[in-house]
Fold each of these.
Amino acid sequence: MSCHDPKRNKSNEKGENVINIALAGNPNVGKSVIFNQLTGLSQTIGNWPGKTVERMEGYLEFLGYHFNLVDLPGIYSLSTFTLEEIVSREYIVSEEVDLIINVIDATNLERNLFLTFQLLELKIPIILAFNQMDILRKRNRDLDIIKIKELFKCPVVPVVAVHGVGVHELLEEAILLIKNGYVCNLPPEVTSYGREIENILNLLNKELTSISNFKEKSPYPARFLAIKLLENDEEILKFVESNLGLSLESMKIEQYRKELEDLHGEDINTIISSEIYNNIFHITEKILINEPNEMRRKNLADVIDHLTTHSIWGYVILILVLLGIYIFTFTIGDFLGGLIDEIYLVWTSQVYLRFPADNLLVQILWNGGMGGFMGAISGVLVYVIPFFMTIEILQDSGYLPRAAFMMDKIMHALGVHGKTVITMVLGFGCNVPACAGCRIMETQREKKISIALTSLIPCAAVMTVVMGLVGRYVGLEWVLVLFIINFGAIYIVGRILNKTMPGECTELIMEMHAYRAPNYKVILKQTWIRSKEFIFRALPIIIILGVVLEVLFLFNILEPVNFILSPITSFWLGLPVVTGIFLIYGILRKELTLVLLALFAENIGLTITQLLTPFQMITFSLVTMLYIPCFATIIIIARETSWKYAIQISLIEIGLALLIGGIVNFSFMLLTIF
Amino acid sequence: MHRTWHKRVPIQSHKNLVPLLKCLTECDKGQELEVVNVEAGYHAKRRLAQLGLFPGTKIIKKQSAPWNGPVEIIVRGTSLVIGRGLAAKIMVLCKDHCSI
């Protein structure tokens, strides 16, 4: 009997056989390492339709087959706790998937098998890949692979993903599985629950399968539906009512659930979970070979773990890491950016040699389009790439959850839990990916607050302005003051949002995996893929805006802007009138405020110190830090939440910058009077 | 079953039980504990159950973050960080000798 009926012998235009594979597993089990080993650079990153969950796809040719791989997000269960789980569940049962490769961390069987058990219930061809076998063996343990095959009745492959061991065996098994057809008689001793639960499941099962054409109507097996109905899974309840046309009342699900809860004295989720964990416990006893004298020595990872969660050193390290991100991103970005700017200048002089300088079209296309493009590369991309790299290193090694652990208490005051620290750390490099990263937050409320806080973090571009102006001409101690004001502003915004937004802050539940040496291949590939995504998504917008601004500039539409803004710039902030237009440009890219200021000063034959007093420099930098998220960030915020919220955040930040900027300006004025 | 038991018995009256039954935040680090009850809301409780933490589970409290921060515990061989507010709702039984 075949339960899942994939359109067998699928083939593409080239006549090759196609196998579609979904990689499923818990977070941090080496799923992406296997994915990288298999697909190389053929990966694309996108979003699941209509959802803000990342979708990683790739393909490869192997033994005459064409494999399409989808790397599902890391999940712990197939319930509906997070968007990731819903996306994964719906995708796995869709027609697109021929088989699942379930990646299991062999060093952590109990937690990992919980998901495996739920995947088995979906009755889709499955291959179990036990990863990190080397580490398990180092601990003097091993897995009885034959026993596992016998118990689970599916192909099992031991894997050491980081060294590529067993990775291609997975594909060989996949071919065999598809060729021979998959027979899924679920081993009852593995997946059965207690007798009273099984009785109810059988009753529900009968009722569900009695519907005519059940198999066509439901992509889920009846037993899976029965379990989820009992578990009170909102999505499945809706599905059964609307798609299968069953009334939940007539199925007496409430009643069954209540019976069980009364019997066990626990709620239904606890009962089901504990039944599964109970089965898992018995299975791990059978499959795990424990050698005697298992010695657990303190290793480097433990020492680093101790230091990074230490009550003093933990915070020192956190600050050092943040500084490290800045310094690394800066040194590389500045160097490459300088090179590219020089190239652009050379090219520009060449262009003007060939074309008349007053040719409007040339000006629009070259200064606007090409200028925007080169500027985006030299001003944004060169910072974004090294930054992505540091972040991948931090993520892969396991530092970020520690930062969240250390900062959870402080973040609670702002209405979010510790995970926001992760996105805020990302924000120091570039707000754009950081705001996109806020999707890791569990609730909409927390996501919104996280985005607002993250968009206020001074990014690498803002740092160029602050360091180039205040750090260079006024003094580093004032940079520190500016930072303190910036974080004060973040605190205020957090407090306000926490008070005004309905709902409550949820508590942190987060797995903290052991430290491990980052895999350089994965890091390089991930960096490239993420940068690629940035290039294709953000650069076109920046170029178009460059053209638009150039047009506005050429037709002198921007001149009146300075005049209109003068009450704010000149009176309220005490800055030269001309800065108004620089601040407008700064929305496009924050560092443009300084770049244009320097150009302007050069044009009229002044130095920056003659143009701005030290006080004005401080106010100007402060306003640049706070006044609005840059354009790319606004777009990301709108895409992650809504345009309404993106505009709200922008308005709040403009208000905040004006308020603080004004206060600073007038206190400076008072200082000079007395 | 644990729930009914600990609701029925006023804790104060059983002096020998007092030091044994605590919430997770009160325990010393390094202690081996058994979960007795999770008094959290529906979603948090379900999440913890899926991660393998429910009445009867044996856990080890590894540490808590400075300044009354979240608690790190070891459940089924993995480290789990739980916000302090939630940790306070997890009632545990100290397995080994209690310090109080």
Note: Chain A touches chain B at residues 76-77, 79, 81, 107-108, 110-111, 114, 264-267, 269-270, 273-274, 277, 309, 311, 314-315, 401, 404-406, 408-409, 412, 417-418, 506-514 (CB under 8 Å).
Amino acid sequence: MNSLDESSPTPSCEYQENLDTLRQTYFFSGLPLESLKIFAYLCTREKFGEGEFLFRQGEDDGEAFCILTGRTQLERTVQGATLPIRSCEPGEFIGGLTLIGETRRLYSLRALQPTVCLVLSRDKFTKTLDQFPGQRPRIFRAVVAAINGWEERFLEGMAEACGGCTSKLGVSLL
Amino acid sequence: MHRVDRSIVKRSLFSWVFDGNLRWQVLLLAIIAVTVFTRVLPLELQKRIVNQAISLRKVDLLLTYCAYYLAAVLLSSACKYLINVMETHIAQQSLARMRNALYNHIITLPLSFFRNTQPGTVVNAIANELAVPSNFVGSAISTPVSNVLTLLAFAGYLIWLNPLLAVVSLSIYPAAMIVLPFLQKRANTANQQRVDLARTFAGRIAESIDGVHEIHGNGAYRIEMAKFSRLVEQLRKIRVVWSLYRFAVKSTNNFFTSLGPFLVFILGGYLTIKGQLELGSLVAFLSAQEKLYDPWKELIEFYQVYQDGHVTYDRTMEFFDVEPDYPLTPTDRKVFDLTPRLEVQSLSFFTDGGIRLLDDINLQLEPGEHLALVGFSGSGKSTLALCIGQLNKYSGGSVLIGGQEVSQLTKQDVAANVGMVSQSPFIFEGSIAENLLYACEAVTGDDGQRRPTLDDIIAVLHQTGLFVDVLRFGLNTLLTAETHADLVKDIIRVRRKFQEKHGEKLTDHVEFFEENAYLFHSNIAENVTFGAANRADFAQIALARNEYFLKFLEQSGLHRLLLNLGARLVRQTVDILGNLPPEAVFFEQSPMNADELPGYKIVVDHLRRRGLDDLPLPDRHRLLNLALRFTPGVHKMAALPADLQRLLLEARTRFREIISRDLPGVFTFYNKNDYIFSQTILNNILFGKAKAATPQAQEAIAQNIIQVLIERDLLETIVDIGMHYNVGTKGEKLSGGQRQKLAIARVFLKAPRLLIMDEATSALDNTSQARIQNLLETRWKRKSTLVAVAHRLDTVRNFDRIAVMKAGRIIEMGRYDELIARKGALYELVGRK
């Protein structure tokens, strides 16, 4: 039988790979397949050359990124000076809060190497979620758990080292 | 704006009957008079046919009367048709008038009304509900008059023939009027119960299906079955009762209808035998009995139409019986030309529920001064801006623009002097140009002389940073040889220049039309034909049915493979998009359009039941069509197998050879010296397609193209084409930033003397925001007064004054440096940010 015949296994497509990727993110993993497959379909793959910005500090680009390959650096510019914060690695999902509400970036994300990302815009996210209003609580639960988990890890690992900054802690109390 | 003399909501339903329809109604009455005559005449003719023609055996009389009879019947049918036509005309004319008047009323209602009203309610009222009363208006005169006159004419004629028999035979109608409504009422009650129960029944089924995993999990089939059976039984009983009453109505009606002839036979027969009634009169009586039923039935139906129309009309008008907050236009003066001096004194604003949102607001702005309103969300900034712009009706205090109280101004005064940009501006379906001119045209109407020129428009596009966006829309336009013959030649020159100067730089972003490479950003049809069709039967939409092309696919061994690909695509796409609404965002990355989805769902259903080979021909065409549209770089729900890619590339060369031999001239193959009319201007300049729609890629391409277009003096031509780009419903084809830029451009073009911006740049990128800010500070300062609700504190430094709001009050006001030095609320806000 011809390798291209109907009964031959479907070659893996980008949509299927997107689906697999999204299922591994904290943000989307709790969603049922009916909405997840639409997000996987609506995601686009974007390439960023070395030095290009995925997003810039102060802007509300309204996009979430899942880094597939490459290396990126999170930076913050204060009074004209740009400080590297940390690198973001493949597999990392950035911008869940951006999808939920309008917010200006506190950081810039710059590609240090050619980078490929899965990108989902707020507009697509909102219009899809409008079709599944019952799934909003799942998203909120995932975000709340992520914020709590982040602060918990910070308290366990870093609180002592941060000295005076402990008085500013409490993001999970928001 | 069209004006109505009195508000539609105060008008009675009957007022529409003659309003604008008087001549039609009079004509209708004349036709009805003829109709009634043509209905009664056959009765007299029947009598004469029996008494004079048949009894006396006169054939000539028989033929004459029959001819009259036929003429009367034909005339009656023609009149009935004419009456229906005129009723429809009156109904539709009244419906159009009602819709215009109601829409005209609704759009002037206060914003507070719309906060509590669903758009669907307004849509339903205008689109559907008014149809019911308009039907009544259409038949309000004709139906009762024609049927009552017919009944009276029949009754009069019968009484004239024989008063006793007439009274006896007509006596069944009063009896029917008592019994039938009683039974109908019972049937209606039972029907209402049936509808209610059916709704519960449907809800229960839906609940069971939704929770079927719970039923399975608990093995609760017996419980669910018992619950369901109870409902089924209730439904069964009520349906039986309903049916019994329905049949009782029908049977009783039939009984009364049949009773008439019985009475005529028994009494009329007796009288005829006794020689007191002619045989012909008896026949006329029998015929009249039968014909009496129709006008009787029509009158009863008309009563129902009246009831429905009256109730629907009253309910609709009551719902919209709200007064507009402000008059639309001044009646005894010209529209004010106000000095943009703003004085707000002791202003307060309460919601309908009595919640205070603004309290004791005082501020003063001289003409040309700029004020920034800052504070936390909910502090009242937007509410204050809306009060100044007359969109909120303030509860107390005063807002003066140029010394005129805002609450006393007409809408036209405000529109002529104030411009407003909201945080979520609304963009209407239409072109960029229409949206840009929206605010100007609302003020100037059809005054062509005061319209902004193309230069004004282009200047504003530059100022707001929308120029590149509009250019992009222009570049994405398809041209035709008929309308743009000269431009096409210029584009080819631009293409050459572009390829020379920038071609190589853009290989990362552009997939050029290379003859020996598979094009992942072009669809399969384009990959095979590698050209633009010059005949409609070879256009891309027709290829899947084109016998020549199908034969070529078959000979190339591609037909079956493409059907398989189509099957994969349709299954996957329907699985993903099957239950989504037809919004552009969901279908942009799909090979099928939203309106094709229902058809493709049927194909999937057929595929589930039978194999590819057993599919009906239309389904196979659809699958092939889908496969031919498949563009691997865009449609990610399926992959292009490597073998198929190779075969397609081989087919390209063969197709060119064969069709050039068999049908020369049918295709213009991609060639650097020819314009490709099936491709956009951009693709023609690139001689290829952009690989990604990312802002970075678009920016890189746009920058290089702009350079060449400027050199060739074509930039404004393309922008002018882009101005005709349709932005889609609610501007859905634009990004949030583009919508905001368009809204700002719209108000800049109007150049109001008082400008209100409510977080108007929140969706813009840093560069665009800085551009707008700079423009306000240079071009608009001292010219127009500005009240800006600011979302970013770094943008307010150069405002003349900053008002910091908290809980509906201004807690401090002054210049930026003063307030920061004071270390008060602004200082704290800046610190927190």
Note: The two ends of chain B are 47 Å apart (CA to CA).
